[in-house]
Amino acid sequence: MFDTPFDNRDDRDRRNLEAEPLGEGRFASDPPLEAETAPPRRRKGWIALIVLAVIAALAWYLLGRDVAPAAAPPAPAVIVDNPLQMQITEWDEFIGRFEASRSVEVRPRVSGQITAIHFTDGQYVNAGALLFTIDPRPYRASLAEAQARVASANAALALGRSNLARAQRLVEEDAVAANEIDRLQAEVRTNEAAVAAAQAAVRSRSLDVEFTQVRAPISGRISDRRIDSGNLVSGGNGESATLLTTINAVDPIHFTFEGSEALFLKSKREGLSSSAPVEIRLADESEYRWHGTLDFTDNQIDPRSGTIRARAVIANPGGFLAPGLFGNMRMSTGGLTTALLVPDTAVQTDQTRKLLLVVDSSGTVAAKEVALGPLVGELRVIRSGIALTDRVVIEGVQMAVPGQKVRPEAGNITATPVPSAAASAPVEAAASSATASN
Known about the structure:
The structure is a single chain. The chain is built from 6 helices and 23 strands. By secondary structure, the protein is of the alpha+beta class. The longest helix has 35 residues. The protein is rod-shaped.
């Protein structure tokens, strides 16, 4: 505070600096203020509170103002049209096989050696045509022996009749006893029986000679020969005889198939006759070009499969159809009917239900449950559930939601031809189908 002789120059300078004012009446020697001694962390907290307050005020200002609603998206566009009404013919479809109308296994009636074959394998033969020749010499010898026995029996019969006539003349003169007459009469009857037996043996031997020529019992296409010339064959009845060949009658030819119990009941209730017309196409054909009639239905339903066997007869003059071929057959049961049709792609599935989407006058979509019928080309027959005036969504069904608005645009449902069937192995046909009438 006061300079003393003992203070040096540095001590005096330090005391002068402490005595200098710091502004607003403060000196360096005065104690520091509280704000100056506050730590830096507290100052940062105040700054953060101020920033949050500003952000909250700005958000309240912006969110509190009226915001204009976003524009609603436009209604999706769909193609609609009324169901197509037309005349159709409904068919029940089946899969079956062709079978020969008659089939015969050719076997010899007599045993012997094959000496000649008179046909070409696979050719068409007529009934009575000569097929095989068996060596006839043993049977001709047996026939000659039987004929000799007939001559011997006839001679004995003639002698017996002469003796009887002579004895009868002597009876009037009492020269012959009555019992002698009885004996001669019995002898004549015995000789007559011997003649009949000998004549029967001749007819039997004649048949044996005739059977040495094996002829076709029916007309049809013959198979290949199962035995060659020079071989011995066994004759007789049944399977004990040697199989020579087989003949199948193919004009007309049969088509056999099996129908379900439901189709059988349907045909009965609709009064289907036993001569109902049928149409058949082969595996590589696109059209039903073979025509015939139903001619047989079995008398019972198979309890194991629940099906009934039936048969149709088809004319086959050129022999093109062969037994064993697969075929798809259809049979008309309902005749011409009027039906409503829509594209098959318009039908929606909801679990077990079939639905169509329709649009009313206000553009609102609604779902209608329908009962489906067969296909006609690419169109599906609708048996019930919609009316002719309904506007059915035929395109854009994925954009149509029941209960929502859509923008309907006019479409056009047209009948398309039935696509050609692929040339492939037979597959199971649909239970029913339909065709448009001309």
